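Hi all, posting the design record for the shared folder.

TITLE: backbone redesign
STEP: 1 of 1
STRUCTURE INPUT:
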C-alpha cells in the first residue's frame, strides 16, 4: 500500500509514476486527496466539538452549583446536540476512511525510477543470457508427446479427477517432480535460506498483506465465504510470518524458502497458453522470500535473482533474464526480473521465475517494521520474493532440452542423486 503522506507531499510525482502503469491509476490520485482532506476535516471538527462539549459540561456543573437549574438544563441540551454532531461526524470519518483504504488497496506500487517505461511485455528489456540453445540432429518433440510416450503425466485422468488445468504425475514423472523440488530446497538452504513448511490455506488478511486482494479476488480459490483461500503462492504465508511485528535491525535480512502447491483460477485466461503443462490451476513451486533493510534492498534483489539463476544453471538450461517494463510489472512490485528458460519443443522461452522488490508496499499493508538502531524509530522493512522456481514450465524445459533421439530423457548430473537414475527410458515404469 502506498504511503498517504506521499500523496499529500508530492501528488504530481505519484500521479506521474502511476501513469506509467495506466492512466486509470493516475486518475485515482485526486480521489485519494479529496477523501484524505474530508477525513482530516472530519477528525478536526470532532476534536473541536469534543473540546466544546467538555467546556459545556464544566459550565453545567457550575450552573448546578449556583442553583441555575433552567440554564443548566439548556446547557445539557446543548451537550446532547454536540454529542449527536460528534456521532454523525465519527460515522462520516469512518466511512471516508473505509473508502480511502479501499482505493489505496487497489492502487499498485510505484515503479522504481530505473524501471523502463512501457505498455506491455513487448516493451520488456533483455538483460542477459546464460548458456546456448540446445541443438538436435532430430526434430525435438514437445513435452506433451514426451510425457505421453514415457507415461510421465496423465493429462486425461488429471482432468477426470479435477477438471482442466489439473495434472496427474505418474511413475518416473512423479519422481522427477519430487526430485526437482528437493534439489531446489537444498540449493536454497545452501544459500542461507531457512526452509519453511507453511499451511496451504491462508487467511484473508494475509492475502491483503501481499497484495493479492482485493484486486485479484476472482482469480483465487476462496473457501469459508472467502475468509480463507488456497495459497496462490508460498509468498503469501511465508512473507506474512513477520506481519504485525517490530523486528530488531540486526535480525535483517531474513531469508525463507518454502515449497507449496499453488492454486489459481486465472479467470479469463482460458485458451491462452493452456497446452500441456504451460498454464495450470494447480502447480508446484519453491519460493524464495527476503525481508531486508530498505538501504540495501536492491542489492538483495540482485542476489535473490542470482540464487534463482543458479538453479537453472545447475540443470544446464539455457535461459535469459528480462527486466519488466512499467506496464508489465506485477501489482505489488516496484521492480521485477523474469527468468525465462528455453523450451526447444515449444520453440520459445517460458517464464519460470519472477524476482521482485516490493520495497515497503507489502510491509505497509502487513505492518511489518523494524526498529532503526540509530534513531530508535520504527521503519517499514522491504520485502522481496522470487520463484526458485515454478515447476511445470521448468519440467517442460528440462524434458524438451534433454530428450534423445530414441525417446529417452537424460537426467542432468545435479539432479541424479535426487532422481535415482541418469535416464528415463520407454521400458522403465
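Okay, here is what came back for every position:
SEQUENCE:
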Amino acid at each position: 500500500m502506498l504511503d498517504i503522506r506521499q500523496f499529500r507531499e508530492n501528488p504530481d510525482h505519484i500521479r506521474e509514476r502511476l501513469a506509467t502503469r495506466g492512466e486509470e491509476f493516475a486518475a485515482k490520485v485526486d480521489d485519494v486527496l479529496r477523501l484524505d482532506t474530508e477525513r482530516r476535516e472530519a477528525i478536526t471538527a470532532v476534536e473541536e466539538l469534543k473540546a466544546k462539549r467538555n467546556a459545556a459540561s464544566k459550565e453545567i456543573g457550575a450552573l448546578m452549583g449556583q442553583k441555575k437549574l433552567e440554564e443548566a438544563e439548556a446547557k445539557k441540551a446543548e451537550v446532547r446536540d454536540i454529542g449527536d454532531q460528534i456521532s454523525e461526524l465519527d460515522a462520516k470519518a469512518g466511512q471516508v476512511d473505509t473508502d480511502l483504504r479501499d482505493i489505496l488497496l487497489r492502487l499498485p506500487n510505484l515503479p522504481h525510477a530505473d524501471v523502463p517505461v512501457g505498455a506491455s511485455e513487448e516493451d520488456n528489456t533483455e538483460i542477459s543470457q546464460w548458456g546456448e540453445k540446445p541443438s538436435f540432429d532430430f526434430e525435438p518433440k514437445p513435452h506433451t508427446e514426451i510425457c505421453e510416450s514415457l507415461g510421465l503425466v496423465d493429462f486425461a485422468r488429471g482432468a477426470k479427477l479435477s477438471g482442466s488445468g489439473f495434472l496427474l504425475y505418474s511413475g518416473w514423472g512423479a519422481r522427477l517432480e519430487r526430485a526437482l523440488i528437493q534439489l531446489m530446497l537444498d540449493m536454497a538452504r545452501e544459500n542461507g535460506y531457512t526452509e519453511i513448511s507453511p499451511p496451504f490455506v491462508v487467511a484473508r488478511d494475509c492475502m491483503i498483506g501481499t497484495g493479492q486482494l482485493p484486486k485479484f479476488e476472482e482469480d483465487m480459490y476462496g473457501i469459508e465465504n472467502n475468509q480463507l483461500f488456497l495459497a496462490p503462492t508460498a509468498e503469501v504465508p511465508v512473507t506474512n510470518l513477520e506481519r504485525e511485528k517490530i523486528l530488531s535491525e540486526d535480525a535483517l535480512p531474513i531469508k525463507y524458502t518454502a515449497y507449496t502447491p499453488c492454486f489459481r483460477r486465472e479467470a479469463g485466461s482460458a485458451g491462452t497458453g493452456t497446452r500441456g503443462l504451460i498454464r495450470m490451476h494447480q502447480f508446484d513451486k519453491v519460493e524464495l522470500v527476503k525481508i531486508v533493510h530498505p538501504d540495501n534492498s536492491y542489492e538483495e534483489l540482485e542476489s535473490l535473482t542470482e540464487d534463482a539463476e543458479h538453479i537453472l544453471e545447475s540443470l544446464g538450461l539455457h535461459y535469459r533474464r528480462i527486466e519488466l517494463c512499467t506496464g508489465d510489472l506485477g501489482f505489488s512490485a516496484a521492480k521485477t526480473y523474469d527468468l525465462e528458460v528455453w523450451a526447444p519443443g515449444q520453440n520459445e522461452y517460458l517464464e519460470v521465475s519472477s524476482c521482485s522488490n516490493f520495497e515497503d508496499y507489502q510491509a505497509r499493508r502487513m505492518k511489518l517494521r523494524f526498529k532503526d538502531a540509530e534513531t530508535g524509530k520504527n521503519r517499514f522493512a522491504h520485502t522481496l520474493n522470487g520463484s526458485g522456481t515454478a515447476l511445470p514450465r521448468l519440467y517442460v524445459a528440462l524434458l524438451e532440452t534433454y530428450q534423445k533421439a530414441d525417446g529417452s530423457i537424460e537426467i542432468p548430473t545435479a539432479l541424479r542423486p535426487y532422481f535415482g537414475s541418469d535416464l528415463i527410458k520407454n521400458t522403465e515404469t
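COMMENT: The chain has a mean pLDDT of 95.
Let me know if anyone wants the other runs.
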